[in-house]
Amino acid sequence: MGRPGLHCRAAQAVAHREEAAVRCGIVRACPFVRRLCTTQSPSPSSIVSTPASRRRAPDIRAWSGSPSLNSSLVSTSGTARPAAANQDTRLRVAVDVDEVLGRFVYALNLFCKDRYGMEYKVGDYWIYEFAKIWGCSQERSNQIVHEFFESQHFTGGIPVIPGALETLTRLSESDYELVVVTSRQHVIQDVTLDWLDRHYSGLFQEVYFGNHFALEGKSRKKSDICKNIGARVLIDDNPSYALECAAAGINVLLYDWEGAYPWSKLPASGVHNSELIRVVRDWGEVEQQLATLAPALRHPTLAPGDS
Ligand SMILES: [Mg+2]
């Protein structure tokens, strides 16, 4: 959307590479082509190259948990790269969308005020469960959020988080492989991909939808997704996901933007694997913490901070 030339060139390149991939039995990722996860094994048909082709794809659903995903990666230049070498050199980092890449609650509040006269600020959300903040049922909350998905406040694009693009660009140009792992629902996957393409084009190799709080369809836990795709670090603002992933042995950077996300606080005690969770307050701190973690994650014999 908005860059037909890029899509066109990418589609031509991908068509070329897909042909080779079919011969080799592998599936590739490319900066302008986001691979979605389907209920079936990854195949060239699960690669989505343009918004139009995404809309035509009949069976794009939740991630399947296929263990073959790791071994199916190739470099963005299109040169096949064995999975083992890839794991040695590139640290796979999963990135959440809402409140980490974009200001979802900020835009949601604008919608709620316009549609229902509800007056809330980001600072009102002591927990990231809207029904509890709004004092309504979960069903009503889901309904309002899905109305928001249909509104210009959402489809027009939620604002980005400052500093994310610059940091992610540097990371993607060094030894990190970036994927999106979001709790977002299947029903907004096209809008989400368009938004990512508009604001973070070429930075993410793959996009995984957990389909949480959905009106229909199965959901997948973020910890399951991260483990199965080999993500060693998750960047997320939600402490529930942070706790869940840390308990599963995954490092987490808990994104509490400027320390001003009321919901993004860990319990004072009783956190399992708490050493795996580090609080970060902006994208500069994300970069610093990844630099500290990366050597030990790439070479497990090193202690964190050694290099
Ligand atoms: Mg989030």
From TrEMBL:
GO terms for molecular function: 5'-nucleotidase activity. InterPro entries: 5'(3')-deoxyribonucleotidase, 5_3-deoxyribonucleotidase-like, HAD-like_sf, HAD_sf. Coiled coil: none annotated. One of its GO terms (biological process) is deoxyribonucleotide catabolic process. The active site is at residues 96, 98. Residues 39-81 are annotated as: Disordered. Residues 64-79 have a biased composition (Low complexity). This is Uncharacterized protein. It comes from Pleodorina starrii. Gene3D superfamilies: HAD superfamily/HAD-like. The gene is PLEST008949. Pfam families: NT5C. SUPFAM superfamilies: HAD-like (SSF56784). Residues 39-52 have a biased composition (Polar residues).
